[in-house]
Structure formats: structure tokens, C-alpha cells
Design brief:
The complex is a heterodimer of chains A (about 300) and B (about 300). Chain A is about 70% helix and about 0% strand. By secondary structure, chain A is mostly helical. Chain A folds into 2 domains: about 50 residues, no CATH class; about 210 residues, MetI-like (MetI-like fold). In chain A, helix 10 packs across helix 14. The longest helix of chain A has about 30 residues. The radius of gyration of chain A is 26 Å and the shape is flat. Chain A starts with about 25 loop residues before the first helix and ends with a helix. Chain B is globular, with a radius of gyration of 24 Å. Chain B folds into 2 domains: about 40 residues, no CATH class; about 240 residues, MetI-like (MetI-like fold), CATH 1.10.3720. Chain B starts with 13 loop residues before the first helix and ends in a 5-residue tail after the last helix. The longest helix of chain B has about 30 residues. Chain B has about 300 residues and is mainly α. Chain B has 14 helices and no strands. The chains are: A mainly alpha (about 300), B mainly alpha (about 300). Chains A and B meet through helix 1, helix 4, helix 5, helix 6 and helix 7 of A and helix 1, helix 2, helix 5, helix 6 and helix 7 of B.
Chain lengths: ~300, ~300
């Protein structure tokens, strides 16, 4: 704090005026940045422990502590996690789960966004009788615990012969991604100037013409947000992956849980941690690359328009 | 609504209706139909397969007489209350810290939010390792010479639920912070100036002026956190598998286990109906406050 007696006499003014003098080192700043750094360390700690553990050999893990940096760096755990770790009878590592997750995520993202953007477009520009009601049900549906709808969907998928298949899981992801994505696209299309739509109508463009030639190209910003939201969401999914697939096509998260929490054999913590990082890598890369867009995505998902 | 007497009412705007078929099917068949189906079959004695054998409320009676369910509810209550309070306090404090016109704000935000990009499975497994009593925090403190130090949340049934909470907070508090920060940024700077002129200390301004003004953000966060709490499943499966004993069992896990392991569908449906009721008691008042009072949608 600045000693008031050091200031030039200014009896008429109570309190400081003008921009605050900024000092780099003040008790306030030390407290502020000190707290922030401690907080940041707390959040970084598990990531650090994961990386460090995955680079150690098992003998070193048994004698040392989990925070110590590796004395001898080895990439063997990574290789084992990727190519050799066992789930049940399959011993080809997490690579299987990785490719399964890719095969699940890519079509799910495309299909769910395609459906939701058309939905949003219809809700914004082509309202019909009852459209609002279905939209309301959709939004309310997003709050229903998944457990309530798990079994009816099992039956539905079984009826159409898709239970336990990749296609079935893609359908499930499209269904449960629909509320939030539809909301995103509807709000975005509503915010576009209406003249655009009217002009296209006057020029004779129809429903699909306007969608493909005008609305879709203009929705690029929200499209990116939706892709980020969906890729991380679907990649991280565990529940639908366990319920609607069979071991051959298990997504990465399910396989990871099976590898780490399997009760047979000696626990290989370094392999487990390498496998854990591998599974978290895709969403982490998306997060660090997309930065602000990711934040916008979750904010859009959270704060309803 | 004026009753229009058009003969081709159904075919007006046909393309939009065709395009909306997936939405209509999802909303009516899956969300409405599926929920109704589950609630309906919770009154039957379905075992391995759904059967129309009416048993009244006996599934519910059995549910509330099952120790595992009661323990799950207690766990959820402890976990839920603590999570709610801590999420709000930590989220708000972090947001207030970030709002002090600090340098490197982006860096700090990136660090605090990154766990949110990770799945609950990854979160659970990491914290299982960090909290490992032999090699983790407890082992390290003991190595320093404090032999009797005990911090083994995942092996001590009394505090296991707090071990899960530690992981959940690590994963989710970044989101609450981002929401709160958006709320703080939405507060007019004039308010701060006015409070300063009146000589109100900063903490009082936060408590008495800013927080009441952030009501919408708080409600959004409340709804988000609560529905997340009731759903908690993957985290527990990965971190503790519900153990030790029943110490971290959760209702969502009860449903899953009875549905796909114990082959007692009726129990699972009754339990999931209870979960639905729990969510509705939160969502309906919220929806009523949010959309019922405004009427300008």
C-alpha cells in the first residue's frame, strides 16, 4: 500500500484518481499470482504424474515415488500399451480400441451434425405446426438420465437388427447429440438476417436449395464448434460404448477401463498410465489446438441461447 | 390460432417436415416413448427379458428395502451436496481470481479447463493412481518419515467418496469457472465503480451486489452440475468400481448392474424411474422459472 503521506497534498480528493499506478511486485500481486500458480500446479499434477509414470520401468516405480522424474526413460510401456496389452483374449493393445473409436467417432460426428443442422434450419426458417412442441420435448429429453432410455433403445436396435453393431452405436450417438446440436444450430440460424432467407425465397430457391447454397456455407463458425463438441463428447463416451457394442468393436475408453481394472496378472502401472494418456490424447489435442473455440463450444452448450 | 381451412394442411411445408423426421422420431419415440416404456415396465416382474407380468409397486418396495440402493442414495446425497457446494465455491473463487485483470489469463484458463476435455474414465484412472496408498501421496509422506500418515481415500470406506469427489472436482471445476467468469464479465463495470465510490470493500461488493446479479449464471450452473451429479457413473466405475464394499456405489451404477449383470430388469427400471423423478424435481422448477415467467419465446 502506498503511504498517503508520500502523495502530493490533494486534500479535496478522497481516494486515488486517474488510472491506478501499477506495480509489478505488491503484496496483492504476490498473493494473487501465488494462489494462481498453486492452483495451476494442482491441475497440472495428475498430467505430470501420468507422463512421468509412463516413462519409468516397473522396478523404478516400486522403489520411487510417483512424483519423481524418471531416472531412466523407457518407451517400452507405451509400445506395450499400444500394441500388446490384453483385454480378454485379444492381445493387440489399445490400437484396436483406437481404430474402433475412430470408426465410431467419424460417422457419428458427421451424421449427428448433418441431422441437427437440418433440424435447426427447419426450426429457424420453416416452422410448421408442432415443430416447437417436438423441439421442447427434445430439449427436455436432454435432461432425462440416460439410464431411463438405455433399455428401450436396446429393444429398438434389436428390432432393426443393429444391436451390437457400429451402425447402432452411431445412431445412439446421433440421438443423444441431437438436443444440444439442434439448439446450437437453431439459435445460429435464427440470428442470421432474415432478408437473406427471403431474398433466396423470392429467387425461387426451395428448402434444400437454401440450405445447401446459403445456410450451410454460412454456418461454418458454428459447424466448427459443433465438431469440437461432438468429437470430444463421443470419443470420451463410456456408457453407450459398453451397452451397445460387443468386445470386438469396443471404443477406446471401454477397452482402457478393461485393461487397467482387470484383476488378472501383475499390475503394470507404467503401461496403465501410458494407455491412459493415449486415450486422453485425442480430446487433449483438440482442446489445446482449438483453444477459445472449445470454450465457446461448452459455453454454448451450457448457457442456453 | 385462427383455424385455417386449407385442404392440404399436412402437405404444406412438406420438405421441412420430411427433414424433421429424425427429430420427431427421437423426441416422440425415444425420449417420450422410451421414458414411458421404462416407467411402465417398472411395475412388472421382468427378469431377463421384459415381461408383462403386473406386480404393482413391489419392485419399488424391494428397491427401498435393498441395502445397496439405500447406500447408493446416501452416497449420492453426500457426494451431491459436497460437490454442489465445492463446485460453486471453487468455481466462483477461481473466476474471481481470473477476473483481477491478471496477466497470462489465457494460460491459467487453459490449465484449469484442460481436465474437462478428458473423459471420466481417464480422470478416474489417473486419480486412482495418484491416490494409490503405496506409491501415491500417502506413500510419499510416509517416506519423508511421518510413518503413521494416512491418506488412502480409495481404500478406506469412510472417506472413499471424497476420493471420487477430488477427481470429479478436478475434472469439472474448470467448466464452472468458465461459466462464472462469463457471468462476471457480463456485470457492468459501472457497478464496480459505484461500489468503490461508496467505499464498499471488494468482498462485500461480490457478496451483496455481484452474486445476486449473476443469478442466471448460477441457475445454469446449478442445473448443469446437478444433472451431472445424478448421472455420475463412468468415474466411479473407473476409479473404484463402487468399492471398497459399497462405499462408492451410485444409483446409475445400480441401474446398469441390475439391467445387464444381475438380469433383473424390473429392479433396474424401478431404480431408473427414481432417478428420473430426482432429475424432474430439479428441472421442472427451473424450466418454470426460466420459461414460464417470461413468455416471449
Amino acid at each position: 500500500m502506498v503511504n498517503p503521506s508520500l502523495l502530493p497534498a490533494a486534500p479535496k480528493v478522497v481516494g486515488p484518481r486517474g488510472p491506478k499506478p501499477t506495480k509489478a511486485i505488491s503484496p496483492r500481486n504476490i498473493m494473487l499470482y501465488g494462489t494462481l500458480i498453486v492452483v495451476a500446479l494442482y491441475y497440472l499434477l495428475p498430467l505430470y504424474v501420468m507422463v512421468v509414470t509412463s516413462l519409468k520401468g516397473m522396478p523404478e516405480i516400486r522403489v520411487g515415488n510417483i512424483f519423481a522424474p524418471p531416472l531412466e526413460i523407457t518407451f517400452q510401456p507405451w509400445i506395450k500399451a499400444w500394441a500388446e496389452a490384453c483385454t480378454g483374449l485379444n492381445c493387440d493393445g489399445l490400437s484396436r480400441g483406437f481404430w474402433n473409436s475412430v470408426q465410431i467417432t467419424v460417422p457419428s460426428v458427421i451424421v449427428s451434425i448433418a441431422i441437427a443442422s437440418v433440424n435447426g434450419y427447419a426450426l429457424a426458417n420453416w416452422r410448421f405446426k408442432g415443430s416447437q412442441i417436438f423441439f421442447t420435448i427434445l430439449i427436455f429429453g436432454s435432461f432425462i438420465p440416460y439410464q431411463v432410455m438405455l433399455y428401450p433403445i436396446v429393444i429398438l436396435l434389436r428390432e432393426i437388427g443393429l444391436y451390437g453393431s457400429l451402425t447402432g452405436l452411431v445412431i445412439v450417438h446421433s440421438i443423444f447429440g441431437m438436443p444440444i446440436l439442434t439448439l446450437l444450430f437453431r439459435n445460429y440460424f435464427t440470428s442470421l438476417p432474415e432478408e437473406l432467407f427471403k431474398a433466396a425465397r423470392v429467387d425461387g430457391a426451395g428448402f434444400w436449395g437454401i440450405y445447401f447454397r446459403i445456410m450451410l456455407p454460412m454456418s461454418l463458425p458454428i459447424l466448427v464448434v459443433a465438431v469440437i463438441l461432438q468429437v470430444t463428447g463421443i470419443w470420451n463416451d463410456f456408457l453407450f460404448g459398453t451397452v451397445y457394442t460387443k468386445p470386438d468393436i469396443w471404443p477406446m475408453t471401454v477397452q482402457l477401463n478393461n485393461i487397467v481394472n482387470s484383476t488378472q496378472g501383475v499390475k503394470e502401472y507404467n503401461v496403465n498410465m501410458a494407455a491412459t494418456i493415449l486415450t486422453g490424447l485425442v480430446p487433449l489435442v483438440i482442446y489445446f489446438v482449438s483453444g477459445k473455440l472449445f470454450v465457446r463450444g461448452i459455453a454454448a452448450g451450457a448457457v442456453k441461447g | 390460432m385462427p383455424a385455417s381451412r386449407r385442404p392440404n394442411q399436412l402437405f404444406r411445408n412438406l420438405n421441412a417436415k420430411i427433414a424433421a423426421i429424425p427429430m420427431i422420431l427421437t423426441a416422440s419415440v425415444v425420449f417420450l416413448g422410451g421414458t414411458a416404456w421404462t416407467v411402465f415396465y417398472s411395475f412388472t416382474g421382468s427378469k431377463l427379458l421384459p415381461k408383462l407380468k403386473w406386480v404393482g409397486v413391489s419392485q419399488y418396495e424391494r428397491l427401498w428395502n435393498t441395502k445397496r440402493w439405500i447406500v447408493s442414495i446416501e452416497n449420492l446425497a453426500i457426494y451431491g451436496i459436497c460437490m454442489l457446494i465445492l463446485s460453486f465455491v471453487i468455481g466462483f473463487l477461481l473466476a474471481a481470481l481470473m477476473d483481477q485483470k491478471i496477466r497470462f489469463e489465457n494460460t491459467f484458463r487453459t490449465i484449469i479447463l484442460y481436465p474437462f476435455a478428458l473423459s471420466f474414465i481417464v480422470t478416474g484412472l489417473v486419480w486412482q493412481w495418484v491416490l494409490n496408498p503405496e506409491f501415491g501421496i500417502q506413500g510419499i509422506v510416509r517416506n519423508f518419515g511421518w510413518e503413521s500418515f494416512a491418506f488412502d481415500p480409495l481404500y478406506n470406506p469412510d472417506i472413499a467418496i471424497f476420493g471420487v469427489m477430488l477427481a470429479a472436482l478436478w475434472q469439472g471445476s474448470g467448466l464452472v469457472m468458465v461459466l462464472m467468469l462469463a457471468g462476471l464479465r457480463g456485470i457492468d463495470q459501472e457497478i464496480w465503480k459505484a461500489a468503490k465510490i461508496d467505499g464498499i470493500p471488494a468482498w462485500k461488493t461480490y457478496l451483496l451486489i455481484v452474486i445476486p446479479m449473476m443469478r442466471p449464471v448460477f441457475i445454469t450452473a446449478l442445473v448443469l452440475i446437478t444433472s451431472g451429479i445424478i448421472r455420475v457413473y463412468d468415474l466411479v466405475v473407473a476409479q473404484t468400481s463402487g468399492g471398497p464394499g459399497l462405499a462408492t456405489e451410485m444409483p446409475a451404477k445400480y441401474v446398469y448392474d441390475y439391467m445387464f449383470r444381475a438380469q433383473n430388469l424390473g429392479q433396474a427400471f424401478a431404480a431408473s424411474t427414481m432417478m428420473l423423478i430426482a432429475v424432474l424435481t430439479v428441472v421442472i422448477p427451473w424450466a418454470y422459472m426460466e420459461f414460464g415467467s417470461k413468455k416471449h419465446g
